[in-house]
Amino acid sequence: MTDLKERIIQSSLELFEKHGYHGVSINQIVEHCGASKGGFYHYFHSKDELLYVIHDTFITYVLEKANQAKQTYNNPTEKLQAIIESFVKVFDLYKPHISVFYQESTYLKPDYEELIKKKRDQFKQNIFEVLQEGQDKGEFRSILPVEITGMAVLGMVNWTYKWYRKNGEKDIEEISHVFVDLILHSVLTGETLQQDRYTDFFLQTKMNS
């Protein structure tokens, strides 16, 4: 991403968070980042497209990480662990983007909203597929309904945006380990929990190392 495009995005994030989407004009954005209207329109056709790019940035990141986890690891426990860690860390990497998303997502144009929804659905489906694979292979508890469990994971992690602070007592790495421990202890069978190859995923092991 070019410096100017990044400056435009960062300025719009600051202004949207402070004044709301409709409270900010393109003129204010370019003035804030020291650009010109020509520079703005070189990268974005409209303010609507800019809002879409802000939303798309972090959704694309978590989707790519989930796809990468599915391709990298052979077993569902490792896949789920990797997906959870990258999912939690997005709230540190893209906190302003996510704040604007929750504040201003209602203003997305229908075409852009559909593109975002498609990626969100793909990410959700990735989690469902890994959970189903884990049950099929006997690593995850089969008594847990896949869709309810998947939605519980999404809801639990998504709520991070409400309370996470970069200067908090725990950094995002430590927080991601807590989520992994909570979720894996919930979904793994007792037999899987005892496997040595997964012990590094749990807090007790990290505390003792």
TrEMBL record:
Signal peptide: none annotated. Keywords: DNA-binding, Repressor. InterPro entries: DNA-bd_HTH_TetR-type_CS, Homeodomain-like_sf, HTH-type_Tx_Regulator, HTH_TetR, KstR2_TetR_C, Tet_transcr_reg_TetR-rel_C_sf. It holds the Pfam family TetR_C_24. One of its GO terms (molecular function) is DNA binding. PROSITE patterns: HTH_TETR_1 (PS01081), HTH_TETR_2 (PS50977). Residues 2-62 form the HTH tetR-type domain. Residues 25-44 bind DNA. PANTHER family: ACREF/ENVCD OPERON REPRESSOR-RELATED (PTHR43479), ACREF_ENVCD OPERON REPRESSOR-RELATED (PTHR43479:SF11). This is TetR family transcriptional regulator. It comes from Pontibacillus marinus BH030004 = DSM 16465.
